[in-house]
Amino acid sequence: MPPNLYGMRRFENKIALITGGASGIGRATANRLALEGAHVIIADKNADMADKAVAEIESDGGAATYMEVDLGDDADVEAVGRAVAEEFSALHVLVNNAAILRQGRIEDGSWLANWEPETAIGLRGWVLMTQVLLPMLKQEGAAIVNLSSEGGFLGRPGQWVYDAIKAGLVSTTKTMAYEFVDYGIRVNAVAPGWIVTEMHFGNHSDPQARKKELEETPITSCIMKRRAYPEEVASTIAFLLSDDASYITGTTLHVDGGRMGMSVG
Ligand SMILES: NC(=O)c1ccc[n+]([C@@H]2O[C@H](COP(=O)([O-])OP(=O)(O)OC[C@H]3O[C@@H](n4cnc5c(N)ncnc54)[C@H](O)[C@@H]3O)[C@@H](O)[C@H]2O)c1
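A: This is the predicted complex of the input protein with nicotinamide-adenine-dinucleotide.
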Protein backbone atom coordinates (compact mmCIF):
# COMPACT_ATOMS: atom_id res chain seq x y z
CA MET A 1 0.00 0.00 0.00
CA PRO A 2 1.22 3.59 -0.57
CA PRO A 3 2.25 5.58 2.51
CA ASN A 4 -0.45 7.46 4.41
CA LEU A 5 1.03 10.88 3.61
CA TYR A 6 -1.30 12.90 5.76
CA GLY A 7 -1.77 10.43 8.59
CA MET A 8 -5.54 10.68 8.13
CA ARG A 9 -7.73 8.02 9.75
CA ARG A 10 -11.11 9.17 8.42
CA PHE A 11 -12.59 5.65 8.38
CA GLU A 12 -11.63 4.43 11.85
CA ASN A 13 -14.25 1.95 13.13
CA LYS A 14 -16.07 2.05 9.78
CA ILE A 15 -17.09 -0.95 7.71
CA ALA A 16 -16.68 -0.47 3.95
CA LEU A 17 -17.79 -2.75 1.11
CA ILE A 18 -16.19 -2.37 -2.31
CA THR A 19 -17.46 -4.31 -5.29
CA GLY A 20 -14.66 -5.25 -7.66
CA GLY A 21 -12.19 -4.49 -4.90
CA ALA A 22 -9.74 -7.13 -6.12
CA SER A 23 -8.31 -5.15 -9.03
CA GLY A 24 -7.59 -1.72 -10.46
CA ILE A 25 -9.47 1.25 -9.01
CA GLY A 26 -11.39 -0.96 -6.56
CA ARG A 27 -8.20 -2.43 -5.16
CA ALA A 28 -6.57 0.98 -4.79
CA THR A 29 -9.72 2.17 -3.01
CA ALA A 30 -9.72 -0.85 -0.69
CA ASN A 31 -6.08 -0.11 0.15
CA ARG A 32 -6.77 3.56 0.80
CA LEU A 33 -9.81 2.96 3.02
CA ALA A 34 -7.97 0.25 4.98
CA LEU A 35 -5.00 2.58 5.40
CA GLU A 36 -7.37 5.13 6.90
CA GLY A 37 -8.76 2.64 9.38
CA ALA A 38 -11.73 0.96 7.67
CA HIS A 39 -12.50 -2.74 7.85
CA VAL A 40 -12.77 -3.43 4.14
CA ILE A 41 -15.05 -6.04 2.57
CA ILE A 42 -13.91 -6.93 -0.92
CA ALA A 43 -16.94 -8.23 -2.84
CA ASP A 44 -15.61 -9.67 -6.08
CA LYS A 45 -15.96 -12.52 -8.54
CA ASN A 46 -12.25 -13.24 -8.78
CA ALA A 47 -11.23 -15.21 -5.68
CA ASP A 48 -7.51 -15.42 -6.51
CA MET A 49 -7.06 -11.69 -6.92
CA ALA A 50 -9.31 -10.93 -3.96
CA ASP A 51 -7.31 -13.25 -1.68
CA LYS A 52 -4.14 -11.42 -2.70
CA ALA A 53 -5.77 -8.03 -2.03
CA VAL A 54 -6.91 -9.16 1.44
CA ALA A 55 -3.45 -10.57 2.24
CA GLU A 56 -1.78 -7.31 1.17
CA ILE A 57 -4.06 -5.23 3.38
CA GLU A 58 -3.57 -7.55 6.34
CA SER A 59 0.21 -7.64 5.95
CA ASP A 60 0.16 -3.83 6.09
CA GLY A 61 -1.75 -3.96 9.38
CA GLY A 62 -5.23 -3.35 7.96
CA ALA A 63 -8.45 -5.36 8.25
CA ALA A 64 -10.14 -6.99 5.27
CA THR A 65 -12.67 -9.70 4.42
CA TYR A 66 -13.41 -11.35 1.08
CA MET A 67 -16.98 -12.10 -0.01
CA GLU A 68 -17.33 -13.91 -3.30
CA VAL A 69 -20.06 -12.52 -5.53
CA ASP A 70 -21.08 -12.45 -9.16
CA LEU A 71 -22.90 -9.15 -9.51
CA GLY A 72 -24.73 -10.56 -12.51
CA ASP A 73 -26.43 -13.13 -10.27
CA ASP A 74 -29.29 -11.85 -8.06
CA ALA A 75 -29.03 -14.77 -5.62
CA ASP A 76 -25.31 -14.05 -5.13
CA VAL A 77 -25.99 -10.38 -4.46
CA GLU A 78 -28.72 -11.21 -1.96
CA ALA A 79 -26.35 -13.65 -0.22
CA VAL A 80 -23.84 -10.82 0.27
CA GLY A 81 -26.59 -8.74 1.90
CA ARG A 82 -27.27 -11.58 4.35
CA ALA A 83 -23.57 -12.22 5.04
CA VAL A 84 -22.87 -8.56 5.82
CA ALA A 85 -25.86 -8.47 8.20
CA GLU A 86 -24.64 -11.63 9.97
CA GLU A 87 -21.04 -10.46 10.41
CA PHE A 88 -21.39 -6.74 11.09
CA SER A 89 -23.77 -4.46 12.97
CA ALA A 90 -23.72 -1.67 10.38
CA LEU A 91 -22.23 -0.73 7.02
CA HIS A 92 -20.83 2.81 6.66
CA VAL A 93 -19.37 2.85 3.18
CA LEU A 94 -20.38 1.30 -0.14
CA VAL A 95 -18.35 1.67 -3.33
CA ASN A 96 -20.23 0.36 -6.38
CA ASN A 97 -17.14 -0.12 -8.50
CA ALA A 98 -17.25 -3.43 -10.42
CA ALA A 99 -18.06 -3.28 -14.12
CA ILE A 100 -17.02 -4.89 -17.38
CA LEU A 101 -16.28 -3.23 -20.72
CA ARG A 102 -17.08 -4.84 -24.06
CA GLN A 103 -16.72 -3.44 -27.57
CA GLY A 104 -19.45 -3.59 -30.22
CA ARG A 105 -20.63 -1.22 -32.94
CA ILE A 106 -24.32 -0.52 -33.58
CA GLU A 107 -24.32 -1.13 -37.35
CA ASP A 108 -23.09 -4.72 -37.31
CA GLY A 109 -25.06 -5.73 -34.21
CA SER A 110 -21.94 -6.91 -32.42
CA TRP A 111 -23.14 -5.05 -29.31
CA LEU A 112 -26.06 -7.44 -28.87
CA ALA A 113 -23.88 -10.13 -27.31
CA ASN A 114 -22.60 -7.59 -24.79
CA TRP A 115 -25.97 -6.31 -23.64
CA GLU A 116 -26.79 -9.01 -21.10
CA PRO A 117 -23.41 -9.36 -19.37
CA GLU A 118 -22.70 -5.62 -19.28
CA THR A 119 -26.13 -4.47 -18.09
CA ALA A 120 -26.52 -7.34 -15.61
CA ILE A 121 -23.61 -5.86 -13.65
CA GLY A 122 -23.66 -2.21 -14.66
CA LEU A 123 -27.37 -1.37 -14.59
CA ARG A 124 -28.96 -4.06 -12.44
CA GLY A 125 -26.38 -5.69 -10.18
CA TRP A 126 -25.05 -2.57 -8.49
CA VAL A 127 -28.53 -1.18 -7.83
CA LEU A 128 -29.66 -4.51 -6.37
CA MET A 129 -26.50 -4.57 -4.25
CA THR A 130 -27.35 -1.11 -2.90
CA GLN A 131 -30.94 -2.21 -2.24
CA VAL A 132 -29.98 -5.32 -0.28
CA LEU A 133 -27.36 -3.41 1.76
CA LEU A 134 -29.63 -0.45 2.47
CA PRO A 135 -30.89 -1.75 5.86
CA MET A 136 -27.23 -2.00 7.00
CA LEU A 137 -26.35 1.42 5.53
CA LYS A 138 -29.30 2.98 7.40
CA GLN A 139 -28.11 1.71 10.78
CA GLU A 140 -25.63 4.52 11.50
CA GLY A 141 -25.70 6.64 8.32
CA ALA A 142 -23.37 6.07 5.40
CA ALA A 143 -21.78 7.31 2.20
CA ILE A 144 -21.91 5.67 -1.22
CA VAL A 145 -19.73 6.30 -4.26
CA ASN A 146 -20.63 4.86 -7.67
CA LEU A 147 -18.17 4.51 -10.56
CA SER A 148 -19.22 6.27 -13.74
CA SER A 149 -16.75 7.08 -16.52
CA GLU A 150 -15.85 9.84 -18.93
CA GLY A 151 -17.71 7.58 -21.38
CA GLY A 152 -20.96 8.46 -19.65
CA PHE A 153 -20.48 12.02 -20.90
CA LEU A 154 -19.10 11.30 -24.37
CA GLY A 155 -20.15 9.64 -27.59
CA ARG A 156 -17.60 6.95 -28.50
CA PRO A 157 -17.72 4.48 -31.38
CA GLY A 158 -18.07 0.83 -30.38
CA GLN A 159 -18.91 1.39 -26.72
CA TRP A 160 -22.51 2.52 -26.64
CA VAL A 161 -23.68 -0.07 -24.11
CA TYR A 162 -20.90 0.76 -21.63
CA ASP A 163 -21.31 4.49 -22.12
CA ALA A 164 -25.11 4.34 -21.75
CA ILE A 165 -24.67 2.35 -18.53
CA LYS A 166 -22.26 4.96 -17.18
CA ALA A 167 -24.66 7.80 -18.12
CA GLY A 168 -27.51 5.91 -16.42
CA LEU A 169 -25.40 5.52 -13.31
CA VAL A 170 -25.10 9.32 -13.04
CA SER A 171 -28.87 9.83 -12.96
CA THR A 172 -29.37 6.84 -10.65
CA THR A 173 -26.81 8.38 -8.28
CA LYS A 174 -29.06 11.45 -8.07
CA THR A 175 -32.13 9.28 -7.50
CA MET A 176 -30.38 7.45 -4.69
CA ALA A 177 -29.16 10.72 -3.15
CA TYR A 178 -32.77 11.89 -3.04
CA GLU A 179 -34.30 8.63 -1.82
CA PHE A 180 -31.69 8.07 0.91
CA VAL A 181 -31.10 11.61 2.20
CA ASP A 182 -33.40 11.20 5.20
CA TYR A 183 -31.39 8.16 6.30
CA GLY A 184 -28.21 10.23 6.61
CA ILE A 185 -26.79 8.60 3.49
CA ARG A 186 -24.90 10.67 0.91
CA VAL A 187 -24.56 9.27 -2.62
CA ASN A 188 -22.07 10.54 -5.20
CA ALA A 189 -20.26 9.31 -8.30
CA VAL A 190 -16.84 9.73 -9.86
CA ALA A 191 -16.19 9.78 -13.60
CA PRO A 192 -12.57 8.83 -14.23
CA GLY A 193 -10.64 9.27 -17.44
CA TRP A 194 -8.54 6.45 -18.81
CA ILE A 195 -6.49 4.35 -16.40
CA VAL A 196 -4.57 1.27 -17.47
CA THR A 197 -6.10 -1.58 -15.44
CA GLU A 198 -7.01 -5.25 -15.94
CA MET A 199 -10.13 -4.00 -17.70
CA HIS A 200 -7.98 -2.97 -20.67
CA PHE A 201 -5.41 -5.76 -20.82
CA GLY A 202 -6.78 -8.69 -18.76
CA ASN A 203 -8.48 -10.47 -21.69
CA HIS A 204 -5.59 -9.93 -24.11
CA SER A 205 -3.57 -12.94 -25.35
CA ASP A 206 -0.42 -11.37 -23.85
CA PRO A 207 -1.69 -9.20 -20.97
CA GLN A 208 1.72 -7.89 -19.85
CA ALA A 209 2.76 -6.85 -23.37
CA ARG A 210 -0.60 -5.14 -23.89
CA LYS A 211 -0.29 -3.37 -20.52
CA LYS A 212 3.15 -2.04 -21.48
CA GLU A 213 1.91 -0.96 -24.90
CA LEU A 214 -1.01 0.95 -23.37
CA GLU A 215 1.15 2.58 -20.72
CA GLU A 216 3.58 3.79 -23.38
CA THR A 217 0.91 5.18 -25.74
CA PRO A 218 0.88 8.99 -25.49
CA ILE A 219 -2.40 10.50 -24.35
CA THR A 220 -3.65 13.80 -25.76
CA SER A 221 -7.32 13.75 -24.74
CA CYS A 222 -6.87 15.73 -21.50
CA ILE A 223 -4.92 18.87 -20.72
CA MET A 224 -2.63 17.06 -18.26
CA LYS A 225 -1.60 14.74 -21.12
CA ARG A 226 -1.21 11.67 -18.95
CA ARG A 227 -3.35 8.86 -17.60
CA ALA A 228 -4.43 8.73 -13.98
CA TYR A 229 -3.07 6.22 -11.52
CA PRO A 230 -5.73 4.13 -9.74
CA GLU A 231 -4.59 5.72 -6.47
CA GLU A 232 -5.61 9.16 -7.78
CA VAL A 233 -9.17 7.94 -8.31
CA ALA A 234 -9.09 6.15 -4.95
CA SER A 235 -8.15 9.34 -3.10
CA THR A 236 -11.09 11.17 -4.73
CA ILE A 237 -13.44 8.35 -3.76
CA ALA A 238 -12.10 8.46 -0.20
CA PHE A 239 -12.73 12.21 -0.07
CA LEU A 240 -16.35 11.82 -1.22
CA LEU A 241 -16.89 9.02 1.30
CA SER A 242 -15.41 10.99 4.17
CA ASP A 243 -16.88 13.69 6.39
CA ASP A 244 -14.69 16.13 4.43
CA ALA A 245 -17.48 15.93 1.82
CA SER A 246 -20.31 16.25 4.35
CA TYR A 247 -22.31 18.73 2.22
CA ILE A 248 -21.87 16.93 -1.12
CA THR A 249 -24.53 14.56 -2.40
CA GLY A 250 -25.97 13.66 -5.81
CA THR A 251 -22.92 14.93 -7.66
CA THR A 252 -20.47 13.38 -10.10
CA LEU A 253 -16.86 14.42 -9.81
CA HIS A 254 -14.66 14.19 -12.92
CA VAL A 255 -11.22 12.72 -12.30
CA ASP A 256 -9.87 13.13 -15.81
CA GLY A 257 -6.83 15.40 -15.89
CA GLY A 258 -8.89 18.22 -17.39
CA ARG A 259 -10.94 16.67 -20.18
CA MET A 260 -14.65 17.28 -19.66
CA GLY A 261 -15.76 20.68 -20.92
CA MET A 262 -12.22 21.58 -22.00
CA SER A 263 -11.05 22.35 -25.50
CA VAL A 264 -8.39 19.70 -25.94
CA GLY A 265 -6.22 19.37 -29.07
N1 LIG B 1 -9.90 1.79 -16.07
C1 LIG B 1 -10.48 2.85 -16.64
O1 LIG B 1 -9.92 3.46 -17.57
C2 LIG B 1 -11.80 3.34 -16.15
C3 LIG B 1 -12.23 4.61 -16.58
C4 LIG B 1 -13.45 5.09 -16.15
C5 LIG B 1 -14.24 4.33 -15.31
N2 LIG B 1 -13.81 3.09 -14.92
C6 LIG B 1 -14.71 2.34 -14.05
O2 LIG B 1 -14.04 2.05 -12.84
C7 LIG B 1 -14.50 0.81 -12.29
C8 LIG B 1 -13.33 -0.09 -12.01
O3 LIG B 1 -12.64 -0.34 -13.23
P1 LIG B 1 -11.17 -0.95 -13.29
O4 LIG B 1 -10.53 -0.33 -14.47
O5 LIG B 1 -10.52 -0.86 -11.96
O6 LIG B 1 -11.53 -2.47 -13.66
P2 LIG B 1 -10.79 -3.85 -13.38
O7 LIG B 1 -11.17 -4.72 -14.51
O8 LIG B 1 -9.34 -3.64 -13.06
O9 LIG B 1 -11.50 -4.33 -12.04
C9 LIG B 1 -12.85 -4.74 -12.03
C10 LIG B 1 -13.08 -5.66 -10.85
O10 LIG B 1 -14.46 -6.06 -10.89
C11 LIG B 1 -14.54 -7.45 -10.72
N3 LIG B 1 -15.72 -7.97 -11.40
C12 LIG B 1 -15.91 -8.08 -12.75
N4 LIG B 1 -17.09 -8.64 -12.99
C13 LIG B 1 -17.66 -8.89 -11.79
C14 LIG B 1 -18.88 -9.49 -11.39
N5 LIG B 1 -19.77 -9.96 -12.29
N6 LIG B 1 -19.15 -9.60 -10.08
C15 LIG B 1 -18.26 -9.15 -9.16
N7 LIG B 1 -17.08 -8.61 -9.48
C16 LIG B 1 -16.78 -8.48 -10.78
C17 LIG B 1 -13.26 -8.00 -11.31
O11 LIG B 1 -12.95 -9.30 -10.82
C18 LIG B 1 -12.25 -6.94 -10.90
O12 LIG B 1 -11.72 -7.21 -9.62
C19 LIG B 1 -15.49 0.27 -13.32
O13 LIG B 1 -16.80 0.64 -12.96
C20 LIG B 1 -15.09 0.98 -14.59
O14 LIG B 1 -16.15 1.05 -15.51
C21 LIG B 1 -12.61 2.59 -15.32
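The chain has two domains: 15-193+229-254, 196-227. The mean pLDDT is 96.
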